[in-house]
Each structure stands twice: as structure tokens, then as C-alpha cells.
Amino acid sequence: MLIRNATLPDGRTGIDLLVRDGRFAAIGPALAAFAAPEGIEVIDAQGWLLSPPFVDAHFHMDATLSYGLPRINQSGTLLEGIALWGELKPLLTEEALVERALQYCDWAVAQGLLAIRSHVDVCDDRLLAVRALLEVKRRVAPYLDLQLVAFPQDGVLRSPGALVNLKRALDLGVEVVGGIPHFERTMADGAESVRLLCELAAERGLRVDMHCDESDDPLSRHIETLAFHAQRLGLHGRVTGSHLTSMHSMDNYYVSKLLPLIKEAGVHAVANPLINITLQGRHDSYPRRRGMTRVPELMAAGVNVGFGHDCVMDPWYSLGSGDMLEVAAMGLHVAQMTSAAGMRQCFDAVTVNNARILGLPDYGLEAGCRADFVLLQARSPIEAIRLRAPRLLVVRGGQILARTPERSASLQLPGRPSSVDFTLQR
Ligand SMILES: [Zn+2]
Fold first, then answer.
1. Which site among 17, 43, 315, 328 is 20 to 30 Å from 23 CA-CA?
2. Does an H or E element contain 26, and which?
3. Within a 10 A sphere around the Cβ of 340, how many other Cβ atoms?
4. Cα 141 to chain center, whole Å?
5. CA 62 to ligand 1 centroid distance, Å
6. How far is CA 142 from CA 47, 83, 112, 360, in A?
7. Which of 214, 366, 383, 406 is flagged as catalytic?
8. CA 374 to ligand 1 center in whole angstroms
9. For the residues of 279-322, what is the DSSP string, one character each?
């Protein structure tokens, strides 16, 4: 396959990409003149933006598309969502879980989202969701990278049997160690859970991704403990703190000490803009806190920050469609990252930054990388966010997985063009 005349996220235009044996063989200006082998499929990108695919660093595929089962979250809070999930769990079947997850993966692929890290609840002696998502992982493997986190939703110490079940899930092939220290009974139990889970990951050579400080309580400081154990155990680059919403409410002086510790420990951060802006601050009157973690400050401190979708149509969130550009747009607004550089960073937060969090070895627009990409009907990453641009073409390993027609509206205005597509041709 030869793709001609693409614009890349770094701003280069008129770029050709040659794909051979499912990998990028060459990327550069005007390759077509000298490198197009006979009989090759040629795609004219017409100057549209060609990006590496979207990656979601934080999702819950065992709960997705269950909205309204068995009832709707009335208060809209995290804690009612957790209670509602507890009501739903005994009613779940493996078949329904697999079917909903596969449907979500269809949506994801159609939107150019080709790698997802999903937490899977292990607080169930049957490990129903674990078995279902391992089956989904196997079935989508030809077209989507699904990485699973063993997530003790009800607390690894607080919930009887959770640690045993978490280890069973890892034995079955779940590859990342999860946790939820702020949900344990006490701060001390939370810290103890971080210690034992990090040690478990170190023993088994696994990555760690914890729901960490998803709270408006400024004294929820488990991220400090997570960074400490990541440093102590040499887990640099392998540990992620998800949510970190308490940081929104922390004292500035304490944060000025905390950020360098996170950076030093090589801990990644994930914000979940759609969910954090919806769930946090629910106990406030006015002014009401936004609750999202300090994204620009973390980035400025040199911490790798990704954005996750977290939820789509489940006990915690009633909307969503697997569109990582919607996630980027919400993150941009909530974090007030409206400078040109800030907006581009929000695009990175749903692409390359998340790929680093998952540790995807073949990801990127470089010769030798797997030929995975999405062609967007936009001229730049900023325009892609602004327009939630149509995914004209979604490709993995040189194989076309999905196509969407260009979006335009026909106009019937005197003295004006006959159609409009909302892009600026420059
Ligand atoms: Zn989550």
C-alpha cells in the first residue's frame, strides 16, 4: 500500500507512506516518484491528517453499554455508580458481557481507536468478567490491542477474597495489576494496598495501573505512596496513577513537592475528562470544583499524561461513543489548555502518550512500526479536535478496517458555495 500526500501530526505536509508486509517501509516527501512498486494499492490522502491510531489508556469494558441495567444512577456520584455496579454484577452473564464488549470494540475500530487498556473487576469468585474479557481479547486480537488490568473494584483489602481473585486473574492471563486505595477502609489500608500490589507486580514483572485518589478529598494522597513504591521497586515507566482527582483540591505547596516525586519515579498519569467533570464536585455547592487532575502542571513537570474515556453508557456515565477526540476536546476545555501548544498536547494525550502508558512496542509513524493509522478529515490535530473529524480510513497492519465518507452539508444560499465541510483550506 502506498498512501500519497498526507499531512502528519507534526505539521509535515505532502508526505507519502509506503507499507510493506504490514509495516511502514518508508515515510517521506514525494516517495511516489521513485518507490511505487508495480501493482501496489495507492491511496490519495488529499492532504488530510494521517495520525497514528487513537489509544485509550483507561476504560471499563466489563461495564460498557449496560446503561439502565438494572436501574439508572440517580445521584450521578461515583459511590452510587459503584453500588449500582454491585447490584448489576450478580445479574451478569458471560455471553452478554462478551456481546456488549464486542459491540463496543466495533464502535472503537470505526472511530480509529485501535488499542484499549480496560480494567476488569476481579471482586467476584466466579471471575465471570475476567473470563469474558479474556475471550473478547482473543477474538479482537486480529484488529484491536486489548490490555487488561486486574481491578479489585471493592478494594483488595476491604473485599473478602479480592487478593486471591486478583492473583487468579493474573494467572489466567490478565497482564496489569490494578488497585483502588482511596476505596479501602482507611488511609493506612489504602497505603498498605499500594505496597502489596506494587510488590506483586514487581515479583511477576507486570505493569501497575491504579485508580488512585478518585476523590475530592485533598488529603487523599495515595499517589505519593504509589510514586514511592514505584521508585523503591525500580518500576520506572511501568506504573500509572489513574484519575488523581484529589490533586485538583490539594494545597499548592504540597503539589509543588509531589509533582517532582511523580516525575522522578517515572509514574504516568491518566485523567478521564468526561468522567471526572461529571462525577467530581458532587458534594460542593458553589463554586463547584471541576475535579480533573492538574494536567498542564503534570505535563510541565515532565510527567507523561494520557486521557482515558473510562466509561461509555454504564453505571457511572450515560453518554459516550468511543470517540477519543471527544475525550481530548473535554480535557482541553476542563484544563483550559487553549494555547496552540496546549491543544496539540491534548491530541498527544489520546495518541502517543497513551501508547507509552500501554507500552505498545510497534506504535508510531516511523519506518519499521506496524502500519496502523487513521486518516482524519482535518488538516491538523487541532482541527481534528475542533471538528471531531470523520475517520475517513482506519488501517491496522496495512489492512483497511473501516471507512467513513467525508462529511459535508449541501447549501442552498444565494451567492454562496453549494457545500460546506467546516475545514479551513490552508
Ligand atoms: Zn476507571
1. 328
2. strand 23-29
3. 9
4. 18
5. 11
6. 29, 35, 15, 15
7. 214
8. 26
9. HTTTT--SS-------HHHHHHTT--EEE--B-SSBTTBS---S
Q: How many angstroms does the Cα of residue 58 sit away from the middle of ligand 1?
A: 6
pTM of the model: 0.97
What is the CA(310)–ligand 1 centre distance, in A? 5
What single DSSP character describes residue 121? E
**The C-alpha cell of 139 is what?**
477474538
Contacts of 271 (CB under 8 A, 6+ apart): 243, 244, 292, 293, 295, 305, 306, 307, 308, 331, 335, 349
Which cell goes with 251?
494545597
Q: What digits encode the pLDDT tens for the residues 7-21? A: 999 999 999 999 999
What is the CB neighbour count within 10 angstroms for residue 138?
11
Q: How far apart are CA 80 and CA 78, in angstroms?
A: 6
Please state the rounded mean pLDDT for residues 320-324.
98
Beta strand pairing call for 409-410 and 399-403: unpaired
Q: Is there a contact between 192 and 158 (Cβ–Cβ < 8 Å)? A: no
Can you read off the three cell numbers belonging to residue 191? 497505603
Alpha-carbon separation of residue 199 from 43, 159, 194, 226, 232 (angstroms): 49, 19, 8, 11, 10
Note whether 329 and 336 are within 8 A (CB).
no
Residues at Cβ < 5 Å from ligand 1 ion: 310
The single residue listed with the C-alpha cell 484519575 is 243
Is 383 known to be catalytic?
Answer: no
Rounded (to 5) percent helix, strand, coil in the chain: 35, 20, 40
**E strand residue ranges, 81-144:** 113-121
